[in-house]
Design goal:
Blueprint lengths: L2 H21 L24 E2 L6 E15 L7 E4 L6 E4 L1 E16 L2 E14 L8 E3 L4 E3 L5 E14 L2 E7 L1 H4 L19 E12 L2 E8 L13 E10 L2 E10 L4 E11 L4 E10 L26 E10 L4 E10 L4 E12 L2 E11 L2 H5 L11 E12 L1
Antiparallel strand pairs: 1-2, 2-5, 2-21, 3-4, 5-6, 6-9, 7-8, 9-10, 10-11, 11-12, 12-13, 13-14, 14-15, 15-16, 16-17, 17-18, 18-19, 19-20, 20-21
Subcellular location: Cell outer membrane
Keywords: Cell outer membrane, Ion transport, Membrane, Porin, Signal, Transmembrane, Transmembrane beta strand, Transport
Family: Belongs to the alphaproteobacteria porin family.
Length: about 400
């Protein structure tokens, strides 16, 4: 064996060893690319795709602080017991609220699948939570509850596929035709019950025509007492100048009917007006075994007597400031007036100052049904609201 042969053999051995080691080398996997949240603009601003799905989600809500004063009858003020001498006196009615809202949307072969939820958390005092009770055993006044966490409320939780909606909503008797103006206290003369579970169908015929049929459970003493639901139906025509709408409701508990019609007019970009009238039968509302439905009131006809009327408008002074007014009157001669100024300090933060006046009509007094806790014939109050929407 010569030197040349030795060198060639050594080189071949090195190549073989290095090849074997290469076969045993560990392969490091490439990292998967991060999946960033994608914007979904199909349903409006604020939506994004839930990662790994075709569902679009939006999260929002508001934080609100209210401070009210005046009489109980206008829902603004509160009463309290002086902790030193036990006298009854007025006090602020305050409430802080955090509201969480969620929206989802997804396109399917059967139409758009949507959900909406709204949950509210509150802390504050009620109209009489500051009142104390005299304890003769001790000679002192036992303090009332005062300001406290007033619980969590589920205001909306519904699912909608195409035109079919099921779940927790507010009655179509109010939502379809529209609420009574842009004032805080819009129920000085009430215009219908709100909370209910529903099975609804919305129909959009095009050209501004729409309709709704809603089977409803009601709430509290207005909850259905059999397998027969309350029924609401409505039609609406909407154009650039405004809209005309009407709803009819059947109260299955009392077998009574109520209806409302409404006209909205957009006078111009800054000025809008609306008027709404209601009429309801009350032949079977004389059952006094329940406190609230007694004396001519039910799930839908909450106003006094057979008829009621509401009206008002909004005037925008500029992009930040608007004036809102609502007036209401019913068959029992109940009167309600509410007016406010809403000022947008910065986008998403609005301060609203409102003044309210309520006159309890003779019909309510004669029927022993002074509504909304009014303790006097004439009641007034005010409220200031700070609200941050997000």
């Amino acid at each position: 064996m010569n030197i040349k042969s030795l060198l060639l053999g050594s080189a071949a051995a090195l190549i073989a060893v290095s090849g074997a080691r290469a076969a045993d080398a560990v392969t490091v996997a490439e990292p998967e690319p991060a999946e960033y949240v994608k914007i979904c603009d199909v349903y409006g601003a604020g939506y994004f795709y839930i990662p790994g799905t075709e569902t679009c989600l939006r999260i929002g809500g508001y934080v609100r602080y209210d401070a009210g004063f005046g009489d109980i009858g206008s829902f603004d003020g509160a009463r309290a017991t002086d902790v030193r001498d036990g006298s009854d006196q007025g006090t602020w009615k305050k409430n802080a609220r955090f509201t969480l809202k969620t929206w989802t949307g997804q396109e399917t072969e059967l139409g758009t699948l949507k959900t909406y939820t709204e949950t509210r958390f509150n802390f504050g005092n009620s109209a009489t939570s500051g009142r104390a009770t005299y304890n003769p055993a001790t000679g002192y006044f036992d303090a009332g509850a005062g300001a406290h966490n007033s619980g969590v409320s589920l205001n909306f939780a519904w699912v909608q596929l195409g035109g079919l909606r099921v779940g927790k909503d507010e009655s179509a008797f109010d939502t379809f035709i529209g609420y009574a103006g842009n004032v805080i206290q819009d129920t000085l003369v009430p215009y219908g019950g709100f909370d209910t579970n529903v099975v609804q169908y919305y129909f959009d015929a095009g050209n501004g025509f729409s309709a709704v049929v809603s089977l409803e459970e009601g709430y509290g003493p207005f909850t259905i007492d059999s397998y027969v639901p309350h029924v609401v139906g409505g039609v609406k025509w909407t154009q650039g100048w405004g809209s005309i709408a009407g709803v009819v409701a059947y109260d299955s508990n009392y077998e009574e009917v109520a209806g409302k019609v409404r006209l909205d007019v957009n006078v111009n970009d800054a000025f809008s007006l609306w008027v709404m009238g209601g009429y309801g039968s009350d032949d079977h509302y004389n059952d006094t075994s329940f406190a609230i439905p007694a004396h001519g009131r039910g799930m839908y006809k909450l106003w006094g007597g057979n008829w009621a009327v509401w009206g008002g408008g909004t005037y925008k002074f500029n992009e930040k400031t608007s004036f809102n007014l609502q007036a209401s009157y019913d068959d029992w001669k109940d009167i309600g007036l509410a007016a406010n100024i809403a000022y947008t300090v910065v986008p998403g933060f609005t301060v609203t100052a409102e003044v309210d006046w309520q006159r309890v009509g003779q019909g309510a007094i004669d029927n022993g049904s002074v509504w909304a806790g009014a303790e006097k014939k004439n009641n007034w109050g005010g409220i200031i609201r700070f609200q941050r929407d997000f």
